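lol forgot to send this yesterday, sorry. struct tokens for the thing we talked abt
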């Protein structure tokens, strides 16, 4: 991949779609901690697609409300404000992308990874050393949105991304980012940073997007970044059917976290993978 093509790719990332006014209002509302369930529901109902998916999510097996949720305000009470805000932002951003031309991209697997990463980050935060523990309000969102650059690249470069996914699946022990960089000269992490900056996501989310794949990062908000990195790794292992999470001793020591606490959460999620798959299918529906 030559430098000119790389520069063109970065320029196209700068030219990603501008958000419509209704999506802008949704993003603003989802970042407003003062809104209650009813006020947030009024804003979210501007998007029938997001409303339908949130209600579908609340009716999924994971939340035990199958067929009982019909109103968005009730769905918000079932899912919780933290989950609703994160999912609504993720859906708002991803709805601007056209992904069908890339046959190798699995939207359900993307959402499965996003939801598992968010769940792990949220559930494991209490196991971190108290002096290092990041604030709870953006934990799920950080995990849920860490890979939002992936569908952005699928939207911009469906053919190249199809080749990248295909070669990655042929080499399951390699890193997806390597295959994307060989095709485009940039990867989905860089795309996520461009996207998050363009659409004014919170700074700590941008830091996770930028640094979560470097476990040695110790800059601003590093415990949150490292927790998101570990959560993404362990989410991938859950999806791949591993029997236990990888130990990651250096990272666990840095966070003052015990492996036993990780195993406990891991097995809780492992035992509910069918329910997570169901949620991912709901989120991936057009």
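and heres what i got for the seq, position by position
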């Amino acid at each position: 991949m030559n430098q000119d093509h790389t520069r063109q790719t970065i320029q196209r990332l700068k030219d990603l779609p501008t958000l419509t006014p209704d999506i802008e209002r949704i993003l603003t509302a989802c970042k407003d901690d003062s809104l209650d369930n009813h006020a947030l529901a009024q804003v979210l109902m501007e998007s029938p697609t997001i409303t339908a998916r949130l209600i579908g999510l609340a009716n999924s097996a994971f939340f035990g409300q199958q067929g009982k949720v019909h109103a968005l305000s009730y769905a918000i009470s079932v899912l919780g404000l933290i989950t609703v805000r994160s999912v609504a932002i993720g859906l708002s951003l991803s709805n601007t992308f056209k992904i069908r031309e890339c046959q190798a991209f699995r939207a359900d697997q993307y959402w499965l990874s996003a939801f598992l990463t968010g769940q792990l980050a949220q559930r494991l935060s209490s196991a971190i050393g108290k002096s290092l523990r990041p604030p709870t309000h953006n934990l799920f969102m950080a995990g849920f949105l860490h890979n939002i650059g992936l569908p952005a690249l699928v939207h911009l470069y469906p053919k190249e991304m199809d080749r990248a996914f295909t070669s990655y699946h042929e080499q399951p022990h390699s890193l997806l980012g390597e295959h994307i960089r060989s095709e485009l000269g940039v990867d989905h992490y860089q795309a996520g940073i461009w996207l998050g900056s363009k659409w004014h996501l919170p700074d700590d989310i941008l830091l996770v997007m930028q640094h979560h794949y470097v476990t040695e990062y110790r800059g601003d908000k590093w415990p949150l970044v490292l927790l998101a990195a570990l959560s993404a790794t362990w989410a991938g292992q859950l999806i791949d059917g591993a029997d236990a999470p990888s130990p990651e001793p250096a990272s666990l020591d840095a966070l003052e976290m015990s492996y036993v606490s990780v195993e406990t959460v891991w097995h809780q999620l492992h035992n509910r993978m069918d329910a997570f798959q169901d949620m991912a299918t709901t989120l991936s529906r057009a």
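The CA atoms of residues 224 and 272 lie 25 Å apart. anyway ping me if u want another try
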